[in-house]
Amino acid sequence: MPAIFPRWTNNIPLAIAILGPIFGAGLIGGVWYYFSPKFTDVGYRPIQPVPFSHKLHAGDMGMDCRYCHNTVERAPHAAIPPTATCMNCHSQVKTDSPKLALVRESYESGASIPWIRIHQLPDYAYFDHRPHLAAGVGCSTCHGRIDQMTVVQMDQPLSMSWCLDCHRNPEPNLRPLDQITNMDWNTAVESYDPKSDGRKRELTPPEHCSGCHR
Amino acid sequence: MTRFNALNVALALGLLAGCQGNRSDQPPVHIFQNMDFQKRFEAQEVNDFYYAVDCPEEAAAYDEAKAKALEEHGEEEPIFVKKCFGRAMRTPPAGTVAVGHLKDDDHYFRGRGPDGRLIDALPPQVELNEALLKRGEERYNIYCQPCHDYVGNGQGVATLRGGGFKVQPPSYHTEKLRAMPLGYFYKVISEGQGTMLSYASQIPVEDRWAIAAWVRTLQVSRQSKGGK
């Protein structure tokens, strides 16, 4: 009686045993690497309608973040400034610059400048800047070295695991409350202990679901 | 040979996919959409519900284009490039006052006394203490320092770059400004003065008083003749 299967089929179980795990590991590795917000989100830097340079304003000139994003301590949302804030200085400086044409136009007409949002959390996550600033999380901890970015890009993944990493162990990411907007403050280098800082409120970032999801 | 090609294809795919943190001007792709994007108004988001109010001129042109498209092709949405966008956030209608925002305290909200003149005192709600001056210094260094510099000479970093200011901010340390009542500094922050625009939307009322107190502190610090 002739064999039903040709001889080479004897290799199939071996091939599956060897290639199967490799394929499986590759699949898991691929999803782990490429489906992560570290890959899909970090590095997003859209071309804005006005080529505003944070490196010039916040870096070279050393303006405080809160000059423009002035609601950050008082509201959940760190507001994009109204055109009037630009005009505080640009009614005096670089008044003929073609790069600022849209700003002047917006100031005249009252129409909004269509800035493109970079940091966008999922709509089921309710983030509030206020408690983070009150606890001493600096701007650069989540937004990176904005003062070195000519074009702003996303620096951190803003994923849930990234949030929880800090909520479970906040101390290494905290700094003194008067250093919030200091871009040079490096939490890895500075030795700062929030527990001996005389803080009135205890550090208890929520880890339960409804802390961020309502 | 085919195996070699397969390896090449795998390598090329890997390279095309790129690495974590690669820069891109394309919006992030959400592989699992879940409910990441919902029909929810967010602060400062575009919303065309009040398009006709926010962009009256463009809205008229849009309506015209829509009517024309409907007539010519029977299509509802015309090809139309919007330059103006409606806003989800609304400003209160003119002439209305929101609850709790009457601002009927002339001293606190306008820096003026009962006689209607600028007053040279902090309002009773604001207590002069170390915390107020510290707050004033911090806020001054955020909002005023870029033009007026840290000590009030009017030579801030913004006035020195990019061709400089057309009109230089004045120094606080002149006879004229030393003689001004405290309410004057509050009024200038709130309403602007000369080429300086209003900072009312950037700085809350209590912080404006703190800054006014800090400006006075800067002035007094120059006049000190020893002792206090």
List keywords for this structure.
heterodimer; A: 214 residues; mainly alpha; 9 helices; B: 228 residues; Cytochrome Bc1 Complex, Chain D, domain 2; 2 domains; 0% strand; extended
Brief digest:
By secondary structure, chain A is mainly α. Chain A has helices at residues 12-34, 37-40, 54-60, 65-68, 83-90, 101-109, 129-135, 139-143, 160-168.
Report on this structure.
The complex is a heterodimer of chains A (214) and B (228). Chain A is mostly helical and 214 residues long. Helix content of chain A is 36%, strand content 0%. Chain B has 228 residues and is mainly alpha-helical. Chain B folds into 2 domains: 41-92, no CATH class; 106-223, Cytochrome c-like domain (Cytochrome Bc1 Complex, Chain D, domain 2). In chain B, 43% of the residues lie in helices and 0% in strands. Chain B has helices at residues 2-17, 51-54, 56-72, 106-110, 130-143, 145-148, 157-160, 175-178, 182-191, 205-223. In chain B, helix 5 (130-143) packs across helix 10 and helix 9 crosses helix 10 (205-223). Classes of the chains: A mainly alpha (214), B mainly alpha (228). Chains A and B meet through helix 2 and helix 5 of A and helix 5 and helix 7 of B.
Task: Summarize the topology.
The complex is a heterodimer of chains A (214) and B (228).
Chain A: H1 12-34, H2 37-40, H3 54-60, H4 65-68, H5 83-90, H6 101-109, H7 129-135, H8 139-143, H9 160-168
Chain B: H1 2-17, H2 51-54, H3 56-72, H4 106-110, H5 130-143, H6 145-148, H7 157-160, H8 175-178, H9 182-191, H10 205-223
Helix pairs in contact in B: 5-10, 9-10
The percentage of residues in β strands of chain A lies in: under 5%
- How many DSSP H or I helices of chain B? 10
CATH architecture of the largest domain in chain B: Orthogonal Bundle
- Strand count of chain A: 0
Helix content of chain A: 25-40%
Taken together, the total number of domains of chain A comes to 3
Beta-strand percent range of chain B? under 5%
Radius of gyration based on Cα positions of chain B: 28 Å
Q: Span from first to last CA of chain A?
A: 70 Å
Which two protein chains have the largest interface (Cβ within 8 Å of the partner's Cβ), and how many residues from each? Answer: A-B, 50 and 57 residues
